[in-house]
Write a structure and sequence with these properties.
Helix content: 25-40%
Largest sheet: 7 strands, mixed
Shape: globular
Distance between the termini: 38 Å
Strand content: 15-25%
Structural class: alpha/beta
């Protein structure tokens, strides 16, 4: 995934500007964002890592994750190169989301949902390819339910994505991010508490070593769901 000079400039400006000025104030002064298990970040390889997170807002979790990596832990801006996955229609909503795409968004068309309504269309193979390349060349924050709707299941294609790319898969549980929203998807509320919890990487060696099997894939999704989804 080749990054243009403009994209690199926007990315660095976002991290330097928002990361050093806005996010410390918003996440640590005006609100209380706590991270748990984040000590593993400095032990992970710089490529082929995917963070699999539940999803409460369109982009607040992604901003908080950039803040955690590059500001709180001071990791080099492009080593690892963090990106986040997002639905194409979501990242075209306004100027902010378009800029965030340049800063690290990997967009794809969802096969099951668009614009708040259910759809049924072929898998976006070009989008899947971009997601796989983002994993292979760096770190990807990925949302396996594909929607912010409460109690949405993990999409079955998640197991196939893991089997094809064979990354280090780190489950992530976020809580309280919806409470940060002031209007629709825009953060702005204060005095709230939110958490990002990173679990140890999933043990997928046996799953990766054998040909893909739907039953084993379902077991991987079930194990992931126990960590990142709300209890049934």
């Amino acid at each position: 995934m080749i990054e243009t000079s403009f994209e690199r400039l926007v990315r660095r400006a976002m991290i330097l500007g928002i990361g050093n000025l806005a996010t410390p104030v918003y996440f640590r002064w005006l609100n209380e964002l706590k991270a748990e298990g984040d000590e593993i970040l400095k032990t992970l390889p710089r490529k082929n890592v995917v963070f699999l997170s539940n999803h409460q807002t369109y982009f607040t979790e992604a901003i908080a994750f950039f803040d955690l990596l590059y500001i709180v832990h001071g990791l080099p801006y492009e080593d690892p190169h963090l990106r986040f996955s997002a639905a194409t229609e979501t990242m075209k909503k306004n100027l902010i989301t378009k800029v965030l795409t340049y800063a690290g968004g990997v967009t794809f068309k969802r096969s099951f949902r668009e614009g708040g309504r259910e759809v049924n269309r072929p898998v976006d193979l070009e989008g899947v390819s971009k997601v796989e390349e983002a994993i292979a060349t760096g770190w990807l924050l990925h949302f396996p339910t594909g929607t912010t709707q409460k109690n949405a299941p993990i999409r079955p294609g998640m197991a196939q994505l893991l089997h094809r790319t064979k990354p280090v898969a780190v489950p992530v549980r976020v809580d309280g991010f919806k409470e940060l929203l002031l209007h629709k998807q825009f953060p702005g509320r204060t005095g709230k508490k939110a958490t990002i919890r990173l679990f140890p990487p999933m043990d997928l060696d046996d799953f990766y070593a054998q040909p893909f099997d739907k039953e084993r894939g379902r077991k991987v999704i079930e194990d992931l769901g126990k960590l990142i989804l709300d209890p049934a």
